[in-house]
Amino acid sequence: MNEQSRIIPNNLEAFWMPFSANRQFKQAPRMFVAAKDMHYTTADGRQVLDGTAGLWCVNAGHCRPKITEAIQAQAAELDYAPAFQMGHPKAFELASRLTTIAPAGLDHVFFTNSGSESVETALKIALAYHRAKGDGARFRLIGRERGYHGVNFGGISVGGIVGNRKMFGTLLTGVDHMRHTHDPERNGYSRGATEYGAELADDLLRIATLHDPSTIAAVIVEPVAGSTGVLPPPQGYLKRLREICDQHGILLIFDEVITGYGRMGTAFAADYFGVTPDIMITAKGLTNGVIPMGAVFVKDTIYEAFMSGPEHMIEFAHGYTYSGNPIAAAAGLATLETYREEGLFERAKALEPIWADAIHSLKGTRHVIDIRTIGLIGAIELEPLAGEPTKRAFSAFVRAFEDGLLIRTTGDIIALSPPLMISEAQIGEIVETLKPILDGLD
Ligand code: PMP
Key word Flavoprotein present in the record (predicted)? Predict the structure, then answer.
């Protein structure tokens, strides 16, 4: 083959992009070619401040040497080990280390490759757990409107984002949804957990009563709903869910794919809110987003129900070729080490009020109708352009990219979640970049 024939024309439709319309994208492609700490470099050589930690995952910042070196060393030493019936030390070491930062009692870790897979794993653990205890009548799963739990069938079934469900016809049966907790009338411009709405947790009781509580296996919520526009929970809401679950033998599952690994200024949102779930779903920040990996934490009683359950359940009939993959495990260990050495969770905690003041200073800016902050997460909600929902926020996203800032939009909401290494000056830069963009939008 000569050199010429190997050159493939730049076809921007060969890679079918996730959650993106290729036909639109190829009109004005946005490409990153490098990254370092808080910045991306674009294909045309511009620096872009990362206001979203990639997709809420690069919590330690980009291309951190310790993580890069650990991946390189592991790839050269043990690239892959079979995940079933075989082990390698780093997966066990990572699981052990994870249990030391997890809320007390969440002592066992099942590895996956993504948030979506962690969700499926958690739901299957919940269903199988009840069966292991001889309580197979518990088959119902309860999610929440506006909940995002990844894109696999279980996740979109318990999830509550209409657009992610309606393309696919029949979903999992035996699923019900609580109302979401977003109430801008009562909780506008909130910082931290919102003031009103704890009583919405009683939806769980209503739904459980409707079906008979002894048929409910689990309820799954994001402690702070992220992808649907950053909806912090009302004060006391998660505690109330915990109480109802305890009263009725329902498992409480927290999906901490976004809120885990320091995003809230604590290791997990469970710590921030003082509520421990029975199962905790994580991914993203576990490996700093660098290598795909997820981890599902379960409490001891769940693990024990399998280990001492009926013979056919001792081996959980579930797992992935890459569960606990050596390179992912090495990346996870180096990521945890980076968080610890640099005190990044504590840094996020110290920055929370500074972050909140900065983002809330955009109140009164043109088009802004609500602002919400919690941990190092922020949402700026814009009034939708008449007759053209999502267009205004998407224009803000495109202009911010041109002006050197990466933001994320969902509907007409701008979501922000920078790496935890962000400086106060860079927080200021986010606000100063956004203000004129918002002022200039149609
Ligand atoms: N759960 C939550 C709460 C998430 O935010 C996400 C991803 N944004 C997922 C699950 C799915 O994770 P992944 O894209 O890694 O499958």
Answer: no
ipTM of the complex: 0.99
- The pLDDT score that the predictor gives to residue 238 is 98
Pick the residue whose CA is nearest to atom 1 on ligand 1: 149
0.95 exceeded by the pTM?
yes
Q: Are 382 and 414 in contact, with CB atoms under 8 Å apart?
A: yes
Among 299, 269, 436, 283, CA closest to 367: 436
- Nearest-atom index, ligand 1, CA of 55: 8
Cα of 5 from ligand 1 centre, angstroms: 40
Q: How far is the CA of 285 from the centre of ligand 1 (A)?
A: 11
pLDDT per residue as tens digits for the range 250-309: 999 999 999 999 999 999 999 999 999 999 999 999 999 999 999 999 999 999 999 998
Instruction: Give the tokens for residue 88.
Output: 């390698």
Q: DSSP secondary-structure letter at 231?
A: B
Average pLDDT over residues 132-152: 97
Q: Does the structural domain 3-60+343-439 have CATH classification 3.40.50.2300?
A: no
Cβ neighbours for 27, distance < 8 A, ≥ 6 positions apart? none
**Best residue for ligand 1 mutational test, from 118, 148, 253 (most atoms within 8 Å of Cβ):** 148
